[in-house]
Amino acid sequence: METLMAILIGGLFASGIYLMLRRSIVKLAIGLVLLSQSANLTIFTVAGLTRGNPPLVPEGESMPLVPYADPLPQALVLTAIVIGFGVLAFTLVLVKRVYQTVGTDDMDEMRSTDGFKD
Amino acid sequence: MSHDLLVALPIVIPLVTGVIALLFYEQRETQRIISAIGAAALLIAGIALLLEVRAEGILVSDMGGWPAPFGIPFVADLLSAVLVMMTGLIAFTVALYSLATMDPRRESFGFYPLFHILLMGIAGSFLTGDMFNLFVWFEVMLIASFVLIALGGERAQLEGAIKYVALNLISSAILLAAIGLLYGVAGTLNMADLGMKLQDVDEPWLVTTIGMLFLVSFGIKAAIFPMFFWLPASYHTPPIAVTALVAALLSKVGVYALIRAFTLIFTQETGYTHQILLVVAGLTMVTGVLGAVAQYEVRKLLSFHIISQIGYMLVGLAILSPLALAGSIFYIVHNMVTKTNLFLISGAAYRLQGTYELKQLGSLYRYHPYISALFFVSAMALAGMPPFSGFFAKLTLVRGSLEVEHYIIVAVALFTSVLTLFSMTKIWTEGYWTPSEAEENDELPPGVNSWPGWNSQMLAMFVPIIILATLSVGMGIFAQPVISLLIETAEQLLEPSLYIEAVIGDES
Amino acid sequence: MGILVAVLSGFLVALAAPWLTRWFGDRVGWVIALLPLSITIYLLTFIPDLADGGSVRYSIEWIPALNINLSFHVDGLGLVFALLISGIGTLIMLYGGGYLQGHHQLGRFYLYILMFMASMLGVVLADNIITFFVFFELTSLTSYLLIGFDHNASKSRYSARQALLVTGIGGQFLLVGLILLAIAGGGWEFSVLVDQADVIQDHALYVPIMFLILGGAFTKSAQVPFHFWLPGAMAAPTPVSAYLHSATMVKAGVYLMARINPTIGGTDLWQFVLVTFGAATMLLGAYLAVQRTDLKQLLAYTTVSSLGTLTLLIGIGTDVALKAAMVFLVVHSLYKGALFMVAGTIDHETGTRDIRVLGGLRKLMPITSIGAAVAALSMAGIPPLFGFIGKELVYEAVLDLDTFAIIIAVVAVVSNILMVVVAGITGIQPFIGEEKETPKHAHEAPASLYIGPLVLGTLSLVVGAIPALIDTSIMEPAVSAVAGQPVEVTLYIWHGVNAMLIMSIITVAVGVVVFMGRQQLRSVTNQTNLLAALGPEAIYAHLLAGLDWLSRTQTKIIQNGYLRFYFLTIIVVLVVSAIYPLMAYGNIQLAGDLSDVRIYEWVVVAIVLMSAIMAVRAQSRLAAVAALGIVGYGVATIYILYGAPDLAMTQILVETLTVILFVLVLYRLPQFATLSERGSRIRDAIIAGTGGLLMTLLVLVVSNERFYDSISQFHAEESYPSAFGRNVVNVILVDFRAIDTFGEIIVLAVAGIGVYALLRLRLWEDRSEEK
């Protein structure tokens, strides 16, 4: 199972990177989302995958029935997803504002703050 | 005061300040007062924390009462305490300065809450003892800085912000993946626990591989070579108070993370990892200063210098001897003071002459002797001239490196030092000594005779500058207490068992 | 204690200088001169202590963690230098007040020059090598501010920076050299290291140490090829030139060589290097001098030459040579200081320094002319001036050399001949002959300007006639300190007829003849000016240009503004840095095999992958966003499959919001265009693919290796009993790791503030509308 996930993670990562290397800021944003999906899946996968047994404590027990899915990575990914969403919301509005100010979504046109004036 | 509270204060204080400021969203005057008080309180808390850590050793506070490594602890060792105190100092000085210089429109859209939440994120990063929690605090810090840099919506800000945001988001993604991998290998997220468990693993190279991911991720944040692009692209775009704040603090959080990671956790193959760090440090120093030499706009010039100085901060980590490491930490401290001051002073010059371009500034030495003196002191401190702080930081680092026969990096460091002097004298020559166009036409340059006296605005602008300049001189002439503290700090870092024991207790 | 006060008092008075200037107005020079005067008198009281090889020490702790103490050691060498610094300093303070009278920045002048004096005293009296270095660098720093005093002139700014950079680079070498010296010798004080001379000279690092320290000394004392900053420094006001760039600061390098001689000197290498560079400098300085027509340039180049002489003498290293060095040190300071002051006075009164238009000033400036004449005679080495004794000793030392004595002797004679010529040009020529037309009508200078040359001239005469006044009291301890052993010093004018006397007579005679034909000399030497195009000054300028080019090119390449370039670099760095340790680990295998993967899992993964590819290749925005949504929901399905229901719910929620956000934002944005070319797309695909491959490998590897069990066992066990919750993930989020959730909420809040501010606060657009 982990092997399959590994391939998926790699694929998402590659797709995300490829999109971020494009010139459009919108593609950049989409790529970022894919990238974070990839990172989240990484956390979720490497601790070991357990099919179908969520870490819930049943009635009458004091801990979940073994084998249970590792709860810690789930909590981490959950946090990461929400944080990622907050950041993404800001980023998307920023993208919109940049487009409105600069007039294009081509990143190659946005080089005025680097380098130096000759 | 209980240790738990003391360790948590540097996080709680800016939180409370930020929240209260947010509650007074529309009332700028009230927010200004709250901000200043909050920043002062943070400084005092930082000093108190440092004193206590020095006296009692590493302080730990387990959040929620859950013992490490199951909960999240806040850990204050000497390095964290020193950095938290410095954060308080910078917070206080820049908070005062922003009272004088921040435009009212930005103040009305949440500048002050953002300011303090940024501080909270920084303090949290310095104090947390859990890897994932570090990620969370990084994100708090980053989102606050994203908004601060973009706040105002100037075109340059937006362009700079998009690059800043994008590059930091990649760093966060890599960090997340790296944390995941680390957990997969070690089963824990607690830094002390990781340090303990990874000390003698069967597969050191695997851990080192994961360490490389951390190096890249933290390295982007620390603006090392060759991943520092976001810094010169964005730092010079927002108002100068924002620039001063982020310049002093953000990259240092990255450096702190690198130091923590590579003294506590990733110590398996130091031959490889620290060799890389050494080469990176050297390249960072040189590319940073060369970038500065090419600039004629003061803020961009100073931004490139930040990168160059980051290189010095890594040398001690790469060499891992107490004196060299102490020298690097001295660089962190000295840099926070001096670099902030240089930005603040250039902001004052901007007030007078309306520009940051060296070709247009001029005659500052002739008509503004006090500002010139303050600038000269700070600039020479940055360039490592005695008897200022920068010289003793350089001396400590150089001596530490020479004692363990690392000659090449010393040559690189001193070469960079000369070039730093070169570019500082460029600012001095072009901005201060050269007559401005107005003077060449026999008119007075702008800003002369415009001194309104010591009203509250001028006080707010100049008191921070004077404080920081005094520290630049004071940390040089009275370097003994600083250096002895930092040698203690370095020795504590090089003995990870102290940290592990404090957090987890004697379970090994 | 008094020593510390003597050194540091200059700094304190310096800080008060601007106010003193304001209060005392035109008289301020007399007031400020009181400080160096009192220091001089105080120093003179040390003379009895130094008889018979004694010395005075004082030390307080400064930075013990780095072995730095404020330790001072007054021995003969230090005392000679200190007397010159404070004595000439007294005259200069006076002179400066007169020369710059009424200047609006006179206060700053005194601030810098007092700081300089204090630093210089620190240099020559410090025993701790780092303290020495601190003062050494401070002299460079104050010199920078003083050379650039007339900051509106670009020549001043350029020369000041040039001096600072050249001496600064030398300073860095010196710092390393000193630290290595301390490591090799096991001590941080000059007086301690002297005893370790044998250990140091046998040490593996001896040669680098020697060259590094000499790097500092040679740059400071303007030895060839680092001499070019000194003539440039003449852009400074003349009081500065008279003080720093003839009598004191440039001699700091000589002081260093003298001080370090008993520790690292005396070896063959030392002798060879110093004699070679010293002799070359001596000759070249004199040769370049005679081409000049500006009084200060003439004096500057001859100073270079004299510094070469001093280097040469220290290099020769015999007792005679060291005796000659100390005597010549004093001789030169006395006459050069005087001549510089005279040059400044002439400039001040006539408005020019060009010797071609100066003449007959003896009638207009009689007192000044006396001082000038005496100094010139000393420079030419004519008895009974002190310069004669100095010259004789130089010749005696040169003849004492084992090898190459003849060559060096010839070089010495030629240089001294040219010295005679310059002595005539600067000290005699402007005053004899007929009066010429000068920009300002000259008259005698005020007292503050002629006292200096008079006093120095008198000293040259008196000490020259009665050398016993200073030979055992001041000279002997100095020479002993440099030699590292006691040396007897007695000075006479008349030694009988010997080789030195003959050489002196030849020197003066030929010198006078050449002086008569000085214009032809100038035109002959001017022929060789093409050397200037290749000389060190040109190299410096080329280096600056090269630096400029390098920095711009680097910035254009690295900080080029293309965000995708930045990303590329990061990914490449990531892959490259992780590959080596991963290969070193080596154990890459598939985690589990693919055989126990169920059909639906294959399907879900396939859907997600295909959607990702669709997102990449989509032509329309909405298609891309839709694909993104499918990816998100697919991942949520995966979460469900592997026992993470809470996670899946959050993922679905967030994904839905994300898609909605995208659609809102994309409204009004243009459609995707294919902007990049094929080549870059392939390159990007390869890089991206490599990155993805790395991630896959890492996940595979880590899934295989688990060194420790997860701590989440604790969370699972304690979730219900201690934290009273059945949903472990929930409990982790709100209890065990509540701080994480806390941070997460803050992030959302800040994002909210940010979004609102971005939408409403549009300073750029407000301003564009105003226009």
What does the model show?
The complex is a heterotrimer of chains A (118), B (508) and C (771). Chain A is an all-alpha fold. Chain A has one domain (2-50, 70-107): Helix Hairpins. Chain A has helices spanning 2-20, 25-46, 71-102. In chain A, helix 1 (2-20) packs antiparallel against helix 2 (25-46) and helix 2 (25-46) packs antiparallel against helix 3 (71-102). The longest helix of chain A has 32 residues, at 71-102. The mean pLDDT of chain A is 87. Chain B has a domain at 269-494. Chain B contains 22 helices and 2 strands. Chain B has helices at residues 3-23, 28-56, 78-101, 104-107, 111-127, 131-150, 155-186, 191-197, 204-222, 230-234, 240-265, 270-293, 298-319, 322-353, 364-367, 369-382, 389-403, 407-433, 437-440, 456-477, 479-493, 496-504, and strands at 59-62, 73-76. Chain B is globular and about 75 Å long. Chain B starts with a helix and ends with a helix. Chain C is mostly helical. Among the domains of chain C are: 275-516, no CATH class; 574-707, Up-down Bundle (Four Helix Bundle (Hemerythrin (Met), subunit A)); 710-771, no CATH class. Chain C has helices at residues 2-24, 28-32, 34-44, 47-50, 76-99, 106-125, 129-147, 154-185, 190-193, 197-202, 206-220, 229-232, 238-247, 251-264, 268-289, 295-316, 319-350, 361-364, 366-380, 386-399, 405-428, 447-465, 471-483, 499-516, 518-526, 530-534, 536-558, 563-585, 599-617, 621-641, 645-666, 678-704, 712-718, 728-736, 738-760, 763-770; strands at 56-63, 68-74. In chain C, strands 1-2 form a two-stranded antiparallel sheet. In chain C, strand 1 and strand 2 (68-74) form a beta hairpin. Chains in contact: A-B, A-C, B-C.
